[in-house]
Amino acid sequence: MQSHYWRNSKIVEALRKEKTNLENAASKLLSFAMKAGAEAAEVCGTYTQGTRISLEKQDFHLASSGQGYELGLRILLHSKQGFSSCNSTEAKELKAIALRAVEIAGFSPPNPYYAICASDNVPTEAPSDLWDEGLHQVSLRTQKEWTRLMVAEATKDPRFRLNEGSVSIQSRLYLVMNSKATHKIEKETVAEWNLMGMAVENENITSFDYFSELSRKAPAIPEGVISSTRKFCQQVIRNLKNGPAKSSRGIVVFSPRAVVDIFLAALSYQLNGRTLVEKTGRWDRGHIGSQVLSEKITLRDMPWLIDRTGACIFDREGTPTKNVTVIEKGRLKEFLLDQYAAKALDLCSTGNASGSPSVVPSVAPHVLCLEGGEDPVDSVFKTATSAQKEFLLVRRFSGQVDPVTGDFSGVAKGSEWWHAGECCYFVRETLISGNVLDCMGSNIVAVSRETETVDSSEQAPTIATENVSVTIA
Amino acid sequence: MKDISARLQKIAQSAPHWTELRYQKRRSQSLQVQKGLIKQAKSNVVAGLGVRVFVDGAWGFSSTTDLGLKGIEKAVKDASRCATELSGFVKKSGIKKLPEVVLARGEFMLPGVVELGNMSLEQKLATVLQAEERIRNCSSKIQSATCTYQEFFEDKIVVTSDGAQALSCLARNELRLTAVAAQQGQLVEGHHSIGRTGPWECLFNPNAVEVMSEQTAKLAADLLKAPRVSGGLSTLILSPAMVGLLAHEAIGHTVEADFVLSGSVASGKLGKMVASPLITLCDSGKVDENPFGGGDILVDDEGVKAGTTVIIGNGILMSYLHNRESAALFEVEPTGNARAWLFRDEPLIRMRNTYIKPGNTSLEEMIQSTDDGYLVDGPLGGQADATGEFMFGAQKVQKIQKGRVTDLYRGATISGQAFNVLSTVDALSKEFRLDLGSGYCGKGQPAKVDAGGPYLRCKAIIGGIQK
Fold it and tell me: Which domain does A343 fall in, by range?
């Protein structure tokens, strides 16, 4: 088994070469930009190599491999900003995008809040193990074995239909370098597996459902693939038992995935420093320290949770990341900031500059975590049942969340209808509507102690809240 | 381009397995303006080659940015290795060899590439600044406005070992407008967008910027005082943009052959009545009645010419959407729906311009003959499901009472089961347009699509507030 498990040491050497190429290209790009007249310049670059095995229609479908660079250049000139990017490390191409960025800055109106700054060193307590040499060197054959485990598990019950899925492995170098002496490089490995499917029994077809999970450590992957696929298939098959919901307005319970899809999406916008600068959110600086949501709500951004998709030790501008408590017991503590928002507000960046090298940095949380409450999840359902004999448990949401108003409206997918404290069946063609800020404010009824990680990213508890409309045909 | 094309052809001809080589270069630029300032101006260039190899029923894929002979040969070798590695694992039910089909050869140019490319970025910026300023000046209630212009130019070469050799060029442009209106601590957004394939004039015909800016500002200001709609099964008159979403989300996805093979609700329904006889629904690479469609392509990413496919003809399900592999499985001709977003993505079955054909009544007549219902416009996002259950968002919902349009309500979600909803259609207008705006479809990778139709009257669920 081990004989084909690892590739050979040439791979390690090849990656060293790519790291040197990436750093050289970034240095050249900075130099071209400064020679072209930039007053300050910043390069964000990646080198990515990966392999993926895809499944389609219950079967293996495609194996793929690829590698490539991405380089983005941001420059400042007389308080004007220019940005350009490419996927080449050739000097001719780099020179062209440097000139383009300076040209764009030339006709852009000035903005005093644009900033390219020297960044602090990453603190020693930051995680250092986003990289697993073993995972980096996994062979295509081993990857195929892991995918076979997924297929075997997904085809055990003929009622489950595997529409598509994949197991991918990626190694990535991420670099931020600027003319103020910032030079940071991070390397990460990640294996990600996902599956989309439905259950079919005679004429009865369930909704599509999906899951995605990741691991940064090779030894954990086979068991992870089997257990997550098994859990997912069982959940989808349960959906075959279906029945009608009832139109109502009252208590609705939201699963951790629904909490992420609806509530965290809107809160991310409201807590974004750029929203504050642009005055397009519900809260301003005067709200810091005041009660803006229910005291049951504590929300943190935790970029150092290394088993999550957004984990990182420095952000898109090179600023070291840190855990940021944005809401504590319903009180607004601080906003998420990049250098632009920080300068506009006369504050310090929280390390939340975000985006790939091909886009201008923006603000986003890395790994949002909504803390659990005091009650076990069973008592959340008991509380909902005692207030209302029947209610909807929203498992997944497909719809619109208006981040500005907080209004949401959409279809409750794979969701359960509860009666007298028990799940009776799964509902279809059922729409829900409400307002995020009301749901997370005075309308909140209960928050579970237990939390779940959704798609290896955000974390949330189960929440029961009032004043949500349920509509059926 | 021709140098690369010749190099690719030479490699494809000597490949031991069926091989597809797809070169792509995309140059994109975008400008985003807010409060009179450029919030974002950026330029991006990506170029590279995607290689697909088919061995005994298994696909291998590899991509590279090294377009030298050695780089291309290595990518072909990697793709072959991937396909060979999988070939023993693929079950016998699939096809082992792609059948012969008519493949595209030659140059396929859509209009606008030169005209749009020759315009300076400063000229384009001036229009964007003007649009954003106009929104802010439309109403004292407008707190902020954002205007985003984006364009991309795409050169592609598709060469296959069985004879395709297609070189294509196109230019796409799009404009997105957002107005935020504020009153007594309440904030509401209004959106408008337009997306085309073609020259500058197809996006900015005379007065178009002024009209779009004013409509966006007015919508946001009007929505400030609008209540939320009461939910339930209702009679709806959908605008061409909303009909586009219905055609794309509710039907289009369920007839993509890969979904059909997984057991979508359209499976086994070919030749059956699935909609009102008023409904003829098509997907096309270029719509004659509506030039410059946002999803225009002349040839797909497998080198198949992109014609028009009648999916539903007078209510009967006529065809699914195919790539070469699914067409072989169904023993039909491919429909030119294989599309990849970038060279590093493998082609998937995707829609292009999806639309319902117009009828012979007018919007006014449709409103006058509606006793109780809603006029729905302003597409937001949408999603489809294997069950045919769809949902899409609308930002503008107006009540129709006794043949007249009355109150405005805030955005809502429309849902239903696709074929059931299409069976309730009882009126289609003469007015017709593709109007999905700057919409993209997501299916693992993005695809630029367009969709539209006439005004259409049907019954569906509108999600709202219960009393």
Answer: 284-366
The residue among B147, B466, B467 with the most chain A CBs within 10 A of its CB, best to mutate, is: B466
pLDDT, tens only, B336-377: 999 999 999 999 999 999 999 999 999 999 999 999 999 999
CA B430 from centre of chain = 23
CB neighbours of A314 closer than 8 A, spacing ≥ 6?
Answer: A119, A122, A176, A184, A186, A320, A321, A351
* Beta-carbon contacts below 8 Å between A and B: 246
B125 part of contact set with chain A, CB < 8 Å: yes
Predicted TM-score (pTM) of the model is 0.92
Mutate which of B413, B458, B461 to disrupt the A interface (most A C-beta within 10 Å)? B413
- Residue B378's domain comprises 232-463
Residues A104 and A221 in one domain: yes
Helix (H) or strand (E) holding B328: helix B324-330
Do A183 and A86 share a structural domain? yes
- Asked whether residue B317 falls in the same domain as residue B441, the answer is yes
Domain count, chain A: 3
Please name the amino acid found at residue A435.
Answer: N
Contact B44 A86 (CB under 8 A): yes
Residues 407-426 of A with CB under 8 A from B: 407, 409-411, 413
A80 and A147 in a single domain? The answer is yes
C-alpha A156/C-alpha B284 separation (Å) is 40
Residue A7 pLDDT grade (very low, low, confident, very high; cuts 50, 70, 90):
very low
Q: Which of B189, B223, B257 is the last residue of a domain?
A: B223
Phi and psi, residue B289, nearest 5° = -70, -15
| Cβ pair A209, A236 in contact under 8 A | yes
